[in-house]
Amino acid sequence: MQHPLHTTRREFFGRAATGIGTGALATLLGDSGLAASPATGGLPGFPHFAPKAKNIIYLFQNGAPTHVDLFDYKPKIGELHGQPVPESYIGGKRFSTMTGKADGKLMLAPIEPFAQHGESGAWVSELMPHTAGIADKLCFIKSMHTEAVNHAPAINFVLSGAEIPGRPTMGSWLSYGLGAETEDLPRFVVMTSISKGTTCGQIFYDFYWSSGFLPSKHQGVRFRGSRDPVLYAGNPPGMSREHRRRWLDAVGEVNQMRAAEFGDPEIETRIAQYEMAFKMQASVPELTDFSGESKATLDLYGPQVHEPGTFAYNCLMARRLVERGTRFVQVMHAGWDQHRSLTTELYTQCKDTDQPSAGLVRDLEQRGLLEDTIVVWGGEFGRTPFIQGNLDDRPNWGRDHHPYAFTVWLAGGGIQPGMSYGASDDLAFNAVEDPVHVHDLQATLLHQMGIDHERLTFRFQGRRFRLTDVFGDVVGGILT
To answer: Are 47 and 449 in contact (CB under 8 A)?
Structure first.
């Protein structure tokens, strides 16, 4: 065998040290009872404390929903409609190149009325009647703020803690730390959709569900919008399942020899992914078969639930995934980027997403799943309280990107229901009361999953990285 002869001195000592250290650590952890179960594949000692949630469904609204038109009611915006934004609110702030300087921009009132709902009295626009109907089940964080002013960096910042691609995303971190609840479906699944006819869709970049520098087995598995969501999982013509099993066993033996020889974790990943593909041949057809769902359940999600690739279909798939043990489901819906389409496409976006989002929360609650599943709804930032476009041209009204204040809502998993946390100022311009940074939201979600965000780290290129970088505080005020 020639490969060991080609090993450099550095590689030899590196592998030797790793082997000795791993063996010693395994012995110590085994004696103390802290070793991870092989069935889950999580890290030793994880979770750090008793979790309040086992799963997360992130309903990510690509393009940034307009908080001033949906959830953050500010009467003063209506009073100042058509007047220049007060200089005191701008304060040298940075906006996208489409706005440039905000000086002289005219205030734009919400395009539809707001009303209070539920015992909590939450303000919700008439654009979101189904969300309004579950207001007492939700926690609205109205003081979110972020740093990026453009879509891809801002989306990546929410999902990975960094504006530049290359870091692991939240689902990958949870897969790495906590392992799997099931061996028959991926730990981290991504589904995407876009409203029909929209002119403001965002690109779904693969780095939105990347495992970054973590082993690639933690990367999100993207399901296609069809009845056959996973490519290449099926057997080719003429190959039976038994034949595939024997073939995988033979390939696995070869890969195991290579793994023992080289110590490359990506070989272990390849073995694991082959096995997952084999198991999904049986689990995915059952997952996508809605024939067992009652009419009442399907009606919760709205008429589009029958159409693969829609947001409604993906929301029901998300419930079925967490029900079967998938740890993190990322449901991404594009089209919220209303620079010139507030009075047209915003209505379509709300119609396509409002009922399925509310239906998902209701469905989870009815099945007893909401208590240990967190649902998150929100985008990468908000929209400006001032207009983008001509005030006299209503069909083309729009709002630009706004990172200084926006709203997300959460439900389940130990999150306090029926409350609004934090606040923006009287023009929904800046987060002024109990501000919540993106890293704070990330720290809070990890905390509910039983993880101390400062202790979930991975050493790469000489330093230890984490989802929250070197920031983030758990938002205790929204927890039960």
So the answer is: yes
Percent of the chain with pLDDT over 70: 90
- Residue 377 β-bridge partners: 59, 409
SS3 335: coil
- Residue spans of the domains in the chain: they are 53-229+307-478, 230-287
Sign of CA dihedral 472, 455, 327, 266: positive
DSSP classification of residue 415: B
C-alpha span between 36 and 42 (Å, rounded):
6
pLDDT band, residue 357 (cuts 50/70/90): very high
Q: CA–CA separation, 367 vs 373, rounded Å?
A: 11
Alpha carbon of 73 to those of 125, 387, 423: distances in Å?
8, 16, 10
How many angstroms separate the CA atoms of 316 and 138, rounded? 19
Q: Where are the alpha helices (DSSP H) in 66-150?
A: 67-70, 75-79, 87-90, 129-133
Q: Outline where DSSP puts E strands in 160-269.
A: 188-194, 221-223
pLDDT band at 27 (very low <50, low <70, confident <90, very high): very low
What's the alpha-carbon Rg for the chain, to the nearest Å? 24
Q: For residues 156 and 191, what is the distance between their CA atoms, to the nearest angstrom? A: 16
User: Which residue's structure tokens are 């070197």?
Assistant: 470
pTM of the prediction? 0.88
Bond from prior residue into 47 cis (ω within 30 degrees of 0): yes
Q: What whole-number distance in Å separates Cα of residue 459 and Cα of residue 151?
A: 28
Is 416 in contact with 406 (CB distance < 8 Å)? no
CATH number of 53-229+307-478: 3.40.720
The whole-angstrom separation of Cα 458 and Cα 175 is 13
Q: Is 450 exposed, middle or buried (0-12, 13-18, 19+ CB in 10 A)?
A: middle
Closest CA to 61 of 382, 377, 412: 377
Q: Which residues pair with 373 in a beta bridge?
A: 55
Nearest by Cα to 191 from 278, 80, 317, 347: 317
CA distance 271 to 264: 12
Backbone angles phi, psi at 401, to 5 degrees: -65, 145
Strand 423-424 to 431-433 pairing: antiparallel
